[in-house]
Amino acid sequence: MRTIKDLRDLWLPVAGLGLAITFGVPDAGAAQEVTYAGDVAHILQENCVRCHRPGTAAPMSLQTYEQVRPWAPMIREAVVNRMMPPGWYVDRTVGIQDFKNDPSLPDEVIQTITTWVDSGMPMGDPSLLPEPVEWRAEHEYWQLEDDQGWGPPDLILTSPGYTVPAASGDQWWEPDVPINNVLDTPLIDSRWVRAVETRPADAESGYVFHHANTFITRQGDTWEGGGRLSGAAVGKRMDMYPADSGKLLLPDDIVRFALHLYPIGREVADARIQVGIWLYPENQEPEYVTPDEISFNSGESRDLGLPRYTDLLIPPNGYQLLRGHFVLEDNARVHSIRGHMHLRGGYQMMEVVYPDGRREVINKIDWNHLWHTTHVYEDWAQPLLPKGTLIIATSLLDNTANNPSNPDPDQWVVYGRRSASEMAHVRFGMTYIPDDDFEEMVAERERILRDRETRPAADQ
Fold it and tell me: In this model, does residue 288 exceed pLDDT 70?
């Protein structure tokens, strides 16, 4: 069977194709032709302004020439160093590089911004400016509807309200509620879920939102029925399952909301989240049941148990490396990877050792706590891991002054739910595949690779 490295090497010519859409890319050698109105404004509007506008967490607005010009040298540095657009911390030197949702700017777009700044940041002809966009607040849109064209959700879960005090510590709100008590439309029969998305229910809830998860429980609960439904944090709103996979909802399910909220200096009454649910058509059942994100962390029954939180103890001005392993008892197809640490996070890495002894790095994530991203593999790049594969998860925690996120390197750091404490887990979006189907998937992957090898480079 082809390895992940084989796949990466053979598809290298198309690496980096993602969802970032750009406009106005000029001839990089013609500096006089690169202007804000004709080129840079289009790039910023498509890639930056959704966050860099009033009412968001971004530190400055980038909607007009007057707003952009003072920040232009910093913008240049941020895009050249690929710090912006944010949220893409996959190490580009190792592992799979082919993802559906990579927001990184193409080299020619970075060159456009560089050329514009280096040539004195000319305004250009105002008639070439893009049409203004009516941006909506975080609680007013669904990303799956706007960016993926899926239409509005079929169902919406709304959590019970919680009053966040004006001044206090972290707040956790974890009610268990019958699903039909929190759905906008009652669930009459069983239905299959193909995607979910989480947003704050209103503007005030958005201000106190740290992160949120939802879980489904039912009688005789196993990973095939229930478990995690959704998860959201800054930079991560949605989960899309593979096209042949889904999760089951039943009318008597119980929803557990797990909200982490933080005071902002004034009381916020009835803080809530909403979870949009996109369903398969009625009476359509997906081929596979997916547990979706499986955590490699604390040894809870629904997780794969590596590395253990109980081993987390970081000395002042020091490091800790946590490493654990797990052997797959079933074949698995991996559709996404997501890291999670707090302020002392350094990097996380997932490796596999195949049953024949070959070892590969799947991905290394250089951690940044400011942005949480689910990295979704291209369909043809999804790792196919046969039963008996050893999965190795590594997390490096950095409690030194060299870590720019570290609030105090002189403190001992232990496991905890607050950002000042630590966690270390990696989440794989996984689906377990029966033997016959898995062999067909491997054979199809082989066919794709052979076709790729024989096709002219111009057609790739």
Answer: yes
Our CA angle for 244, 248, 252, nearest 5°, is 170
Sign of the Cα pseudo-torsion (142, 146, 150, 154, in order): positive
- Residue among 101, 63, 97, 103 nearest 79 (CA): 103
CB 169 within 8 A of CB 261: no
Q: Which amino acid is at 392?
A: I
Contact status, residue 24 vs residue 42, Cβ threshold 8 Å: yes
The CA distances from residue 274 to 4, 20, 63, in Å, are 37, 27, 29
393, 298 contact by CB (below 8 A): no
Half-sphere exposure of 39 (CA within 13 A, CB side): 24
Looking at the predicted structure, is the pLDDT value of residue 313 above 70? yes
The neighbouring-strand residues paired with 336 are 376, 429
Are β-strands 288-289 and 245-249 bridged in parallel, bridged antiparallel, or unpaired? parallel
Q: How far apart are CA 204 and CA 207, in angstroms?
A: 5
For the cut 70, the answer to whether the pLDDT of residue 452 exceeds it is yes
Closest CA to 201 of 278, 277, 276: 276
Comparing 430 with 18, which gets the higher pLDDT? 430
CA separation (Å) from 272 to 34, 215, 239, 283? 45, 16, 20, 32
Q: What is the pLDDT of residues 140-197, one digit of tens each?
A: 999 999 888 899 999 999 999 999 999 998 999 999 999 999 999 999 999 999 999 9
Angle at 176 between CA 170 and CA 177, to 5 degrees: 125
Q: Are 238 and 194 in contact (CB under 8 A)?
A: no
Is the pLDDT at 32 greater than 60? The verdict is no
pTM for the model: 0.84
Confidence class of residue 33 from pLDDT cuts 50, 70 and 90? Answer: confident
Between strands 191-200 and 238-240, the pairing is antiparallel
